[in-house]
């Protein structure tokens, strides 16, 4: 039996609730290729709805807009700025909360384990320490995984694919709920403290988006509270703009990179873009990084010294020591190639793993068990590597938080332990800034290898966690290794500083996994506080993206595809000019007449086989020989509100003066309109008529049936439409284009391929 929590298991398909007999059959089939798993990535799920980015300009809307004078518009604009400031402040505070709690809990855990190891090193019996460490990790991760698997599965992972979909115009259920935010924050804290190979940066983007969606609506459906503020913003258009501001604020709190945040929203997110929006988003990002900075500075006891702009701080890179010369450019490009190949390998492994998870680990209890297993294995690997490492460094002059002596001489510490006895963020900074000679190349190589597989196994678990920091850490480790071997080859020349190569390796690895270009360059530049490296970082990221795209797509796009989400890219597939709107559109279309019987409307809405959300309205002519021309478009949500308030023509003709519906009635029902089953219509009411003329959108966008697919795509994508009516030369409705019809066509390896639609 499928529980609701199996919803997000990356694109659940109907054949997940397998019966026993299918299991028997399956074990006999030799499984060579992952494509033979019944979960098929060449499907589009029909359970995702689109957002209406386009306002319905019906008479109510136009009347309201005409009533608003200039001063009122100015107050709306001021409200927008206020909301953006609030988004920034709250996102910054949430980031502070995560940071402080993680620091204290992780510190506590490391102290306990360190004291335990020190005690048992003296008198033997180190297996107890291993047991303690593994148990601590597994129990913390168990709690973090339980809340995600059983309470809110959408909070799993980094949340970036989900936010990308939301900003693309796909409505992912529960993605911007308050409940999701609470689970996300607790889950991130627990999974980082539990020592998994994860970062707390990715989830900040999701958290910022939830905060933005919540504040801009001025109410919470999870708390069942309506604060009666910001009611003007209760529609998809406004909500989506604020969510993109929230995502930017999240990036800027995570990396201390406000410009990077704006560019992230621009590159990954918002489909529709204008100058005012950019400026507001930048404002939200700045406020968020400033809030984080001031609160953390006060917390660390130097209130005037604003020294921690983001959750991760790469520390300053000195331009004098760390410049680069022209002959290093080919080396950087080579590092980009390596990053692209490793990133593609990471993504391919993760793809197979995710397919396996969808297929077999879809029960919440199994997911929790898997998360605990990964936590225990991570601890064990760390312990074994520290135990086998004979790499001792003097304690003098080193800034190690928890120096672990183990088998080293007095006054020395085990350098392998610093990599594992730290949150990944600290390890990254150490790899960037430790003086040359702090790391044994052999240990570093082993660490890179193990961490690569651990991080790959961890991404996609049912815990809230980001992939940013692990990728940076893997990259920094092999980059530093590269730098060490270079300085070894050049007999210790000054320009082969391992820290610089660690930075380039980190950029290459992250670029190879997530394939962001513009925003990532700026984020790395802002996080290092150094513009000198702008050009090499850009080169490295471009190379990594080009090389990686040759093999497999980026991690986030891959997960979106595995969830069967109808995601629209910037452009239509290149070879699609041969297709026209006639071939793409859905037919037949369910049309309504302008004055329609209530019974007909109820039957159409209750019909589960055609779960349409938009209905063209045609002229209701008494003689049916004449063909009805298109008059407008009305949405399911609007019809439901009309039925709920019983706006029937018969009532209007009686002398009872009935209160006219206002736009407020539609806004109060947003975003969760009641289902048609909950609306009771009596037998007499079914015979009444309903007049749609003042509620329908009288000027819907239409295209002729000869229009080519790229043209239809451009119109649809740029305006953020949900329905596009296809008409013939007599203005009669012949079909309807929705998101699914356009997302079906994708460029595959052999050219244009068409995906099939699944009802799940």
TrEMBL record:
It is found in: Membrane. It holds the Pfam family Voltage_CLC. GO terms for cellular component: lysosomal membrane. One of its GO terms (molecular function) is chloride channel activity. Keywords: CBS domain, Chloride, Ion transport, Membrane, Repeat, Transmembrane, Transmembrane helix, Transport. Residues 696-754 form the CBS domain. Its main location: membrane. It is a multi-pass membrane protein. The chain crosses the membrane at residues 81-102, 130-151, 181-199, 242-265, 277-299, 329-353, 442-461, 467-489, 501-525, 531-552. The keyword Disulfide bond does not apply. InterPro entries: CBS_dom (IPR000644), CBS_dom_sf (IPR046342), CIC-7 (IPR002249), Cl-channel/antiporter (IPR051280), Cl-channel_core (IPR014743), ClC (IPR001807). It comes from the Eukaryota. The keyword NAD does not apply. Belongs to the chloride channel (TC 2.A.49) family. PANTHER family: CHLORIDE CHANNEL PROTEIN CLC FAMILY MEMBER (PTHR11689), H(+)_CL(-) EXCHANGE TRANSPORTER 7 (PTHR11689:SF136). This is Chloride channel protein. It comes from Leptocoma aspasia.
């Amino acid at each position: 039996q499928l529980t609701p929590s199996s919803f997000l298991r990356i694109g659940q398909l109907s054949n997940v609730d397998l019966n026993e007999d299918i299991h028997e059959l399956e074990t006999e089939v030799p499984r060579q290729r992952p494509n033979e798993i019944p979960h098929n990535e060449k499907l589009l799920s029909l359970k995702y709805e689109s957002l209406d980015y386009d306002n319905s300009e019906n008479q109510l809307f136009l009347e309201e807009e005409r009533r608003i004078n200039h001063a009122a518009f100015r107050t709306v604009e001021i409200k927008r700025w206020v909301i953006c400031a609030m988004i920034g402040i709250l996102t910054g505070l949430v980031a502070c909360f995560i940071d402080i709690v993680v620091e204290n809990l992780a510190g506590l855990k490391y102290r306990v384990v360190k004291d335990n190891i020190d005690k048992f090193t003296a008198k033997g019996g180190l297996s107890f320490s291993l047991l303690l460490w593994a148990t601590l990790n597994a129990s913390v991760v168990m709690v973090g995984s339980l809340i995600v698997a059983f309470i809110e599965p959408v909070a799993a992972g980094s949340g970036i694919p989900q936010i990308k979909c939301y900003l693309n115009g796909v409505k992912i259920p529960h993605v911007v709920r308050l409940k999701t935010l609470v689970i996300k924050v607790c889950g991130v804290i627990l999974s980082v403290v539990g020592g998994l190979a994860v970062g707390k940066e990715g989830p900040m983007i999701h958290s910022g988006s939830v905060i933005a969606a919540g504040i801009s609506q001025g109410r919470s459906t999870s708390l069942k509270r309506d604060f009666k503020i910001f009611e003007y913003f209760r529609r998809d258009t406004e909500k989506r703009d604020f969510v993109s501001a929230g995502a930017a604020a999240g990036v800027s709190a995570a990396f201390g990179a406000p410009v990077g945040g704006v560019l992230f929203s621009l590159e990954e997110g918002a489909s529709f873009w204008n100058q005012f929006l950019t400026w507001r988003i930048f404002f939200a990002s700045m406020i968020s990084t400033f809030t984080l900075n001031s609160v953390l500075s006060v917390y660390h006891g130097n209130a005037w010294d604003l020294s921690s702009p983001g959750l991760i701080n790469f520390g300053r890179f000195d331009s004098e020591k760390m410049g680069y010369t022209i002959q290093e450019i080919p080396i950087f490009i080579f590092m980009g190639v390596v990053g692209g190949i490793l990133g593609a390998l990471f993504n391919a492994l993760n793809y197979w793993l995710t397919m396996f998870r969808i297929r077999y680990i879809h029960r919440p209890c199994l997911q929790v068990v898997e998360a605990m297993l990964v936590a225990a294995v991570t601890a064990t690997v760390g312990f074994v590597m520290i135990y086998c490492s004979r790499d001792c460094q003097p304690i003098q002059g080193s800034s190690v938080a928890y120096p672990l002596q183990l088998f080293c001489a007095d006054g020395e510490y085990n350098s392998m332990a610093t990599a594992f006895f730290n949150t990944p963020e600290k390890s990254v900074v150490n790899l960037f800034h430790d003086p040359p000679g702090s790391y044994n190349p052999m240990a570093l190589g082993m660490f890179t290898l193990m961490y690569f597989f651990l991080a790959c196994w961890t991404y996609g678990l049912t815990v809230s966690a980001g992939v940013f920091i692990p990728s940076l850490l893997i990259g920094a480790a092999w980059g530093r290794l590269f730098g060490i071997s270079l300085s070894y080859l050049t007999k210790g020349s000054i320009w082969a500083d391992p820290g610089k190569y660690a930075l380039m390796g980190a950029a290459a690895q992250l670029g190879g996994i997530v394939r962001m270009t513009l925003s990532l360059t700026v984020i790395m530049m802002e996080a290092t506080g150094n513009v000198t490296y702008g050009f090499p970082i850009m080169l490295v990221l471009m190379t990594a993206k080009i090389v990686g795209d040759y093999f497999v797509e980026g991690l986030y796009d891959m997960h979106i595809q595995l969830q069967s989400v109808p995601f629209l890219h910037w452009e239509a597939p290149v070879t699609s000019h041969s297709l026209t709107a006639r071939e793409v559109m859905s037919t037949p279309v369910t049309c309504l007449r302008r004055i329609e019987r209530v019974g007909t409307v109820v039957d159409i809405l209750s019909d589960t086989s055609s779960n349409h959300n938009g209905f063209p309205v045609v002229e209701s002519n008494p003689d049916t020989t004449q063909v009805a021309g298109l008059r407008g478009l009305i949405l399911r949500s609007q019809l439901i509100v009309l039925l709920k308030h019983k706006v029937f023509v018969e009532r209007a003709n009686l002398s009872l003066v009935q209160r006219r519906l206002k736009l407020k009635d539609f806004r109060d029902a947003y975003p969760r309109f009641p289902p048609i089953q909950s609306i009771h219509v009596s037998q007499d009411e079914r015979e009444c008529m309903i007049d749609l003329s003042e509620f329908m959108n009288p000027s819907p966008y239409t295209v002729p049936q000869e229009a080519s697919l790229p043209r239809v795509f451009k119109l649809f994508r740029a305006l953020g439409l949900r329905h596009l009516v296809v008409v013939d030369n007599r203005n009669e409705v012949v079909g309807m284009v929705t998101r699914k019809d356009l997302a079906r066509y994708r460029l595959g390896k052999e050219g244009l391929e068409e995906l099939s639609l699944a009802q799940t």
